């Protein structure tokens, strides 16, 4: 192909298959980079208070916007999303806990935000944040117990819940291959009847941004010990990643005034999966593959 620059500014003559074709400079630049329609939207934030029977109640609603990076799993490679987050809280002052609802909506960048969003996440929760331009994490704990729900940023689909802060790490030094780990400790009345078994300690989740790779059920032979490890008030649970391996390390420690008596569970990661066969566990604890 031969290109001849003409004296007229902003015009190119391109010889294609022996025939000349005229392209404007604007056409060339748009081919190199997508141009989006201008967008404009606004949302209201407010605060109000009321008094009834000597109780003072405060309601707050806050809205915020965010533009994602590209390469979002489940979306076209060069697409960005506009994310709108709304949090509404209602709290009686000097009392523990609150009512809170979090709404997360997403549109392709350049869309009219008055149109229906790609999806809307609407759950009880006090905060939402994006993670790695791949996930949405909503803080769900409204009283003394903290827990989080994790969703796919591209589709809004629920991925998993965790009662410990989300752990993220890369399994490759050569490429960015982010993986995510959580531990869900079932309440006394779980929706899944299998988790009512008194030997259950919790469900470990190992996931990519696209899907859950592996779930594993942690159990204990002694139901009283399992109950202690599940306790929200008496036990602190943390997760980290270790080397070499890599591996997932979980720590269970009793809270004050008891001695910590920390118990450690180590699960190697092999071929991008949890290596449950070679897991290192305290006596009478077991881990096995599990699926919802």
What does this structure look like?
- With 292 residues, this protein is mainly beta.
- Helices cover 5% and strands 48% of the residues.
- The chain has two helices and 20 strands.
- A five-stranded antiparallel beta sheet has the order 4-5-6-7-8, with no helix packed on it.
- A hairpin with an 8-residue loop joins strand 10 and strand 11.
- The chain is flat and about 60 Å long.
- It starts with a strand and ends with a strand.
**Strand content of the residues, in percent?**
over 45%
Oligomer: single chain
Structural class: mainly beta
- Quote the average pLDDT: 87
The share of residues in helices is under 10%
Describe how the helices and strands are arranged.
Blueprint: E1 2-5, E2 11-16, E3 19-24, H1 25-32, E4 46-52, E5 55-67, E6 81-92, E7 99-108, E8 119-124, E9 127-131, E10 135-139, E11 148-152, E12 158-162, E13 167-170, E14 178-184, E15 200-207, E16 212-220, H2 223-230, E17 235-242, E18 247-254, E19 263-268, E20 285-290
Antiparallel strand pairs: 1-2, 2-3, 4-5, 5-6, 6-7, 7-8, 9-10, 10-11, 11-12, 13-14, 14-15, 15-16, 16-20, 17-18, 18-19
């Amino acid at each position: 192909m031969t290109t001849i620059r003409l004296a007229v500014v902003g015009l190119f003559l391109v010889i294609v298959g022996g025939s000349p074709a005229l392209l404007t400079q604007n056409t060339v630049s748009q081919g190199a980079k997508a141009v989006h329609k201008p967008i404009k939207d606004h949302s209201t934030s407010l605060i109000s208070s009321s008094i009834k029977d000597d109780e003072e109640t405060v309601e707050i609603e806050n809205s915020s916007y965010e533009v994602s990076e590209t390469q979002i799993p489940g979306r076209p490679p060069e697409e960005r999303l506009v994310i709108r987050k709304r949090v509404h809280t209602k709290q009686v002052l000097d009392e523990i806990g609150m009512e809170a609802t979090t709404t997360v909506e997403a549109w392709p960048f350049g869309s009219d935000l008055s149109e229906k969003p790609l999806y809307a996440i609407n759950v009880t929760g006090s905060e939402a944040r994006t993670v790695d331009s791949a996930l949405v994490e909503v803080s769900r704990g409204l009283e003394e117990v903290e827990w989080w729900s994790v969703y796919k940023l591209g589709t809004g689909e629920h991925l998993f819940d965790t009662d410990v802060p989300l752990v993220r790490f890369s399994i490759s030094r050569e490429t960015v291959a982010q993986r995510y780990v959580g531990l869900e400790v079932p309440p006394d009345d779980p929706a899944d009847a299998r988790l009512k078994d008194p030997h259950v300690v919790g469900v470990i989740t190992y996931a990519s941004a696209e899907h859950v790779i592996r779930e594993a059920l942690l159990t204990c032979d002694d139901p009283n010990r399992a109950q202690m490890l599940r306790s929200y008030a008496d036990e602190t649970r943390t997760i980290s990643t270790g080397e070499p391996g890599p591996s997932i390390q979980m720590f269970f420690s009793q809270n004050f005034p008891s001695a910590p008596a920390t118990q450690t569970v180590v699960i190697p990661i092999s071929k991008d999966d949890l290596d449950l066969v070679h897991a290192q566990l305290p006596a009478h604890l077991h881990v096995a593959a599990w699926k919802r």
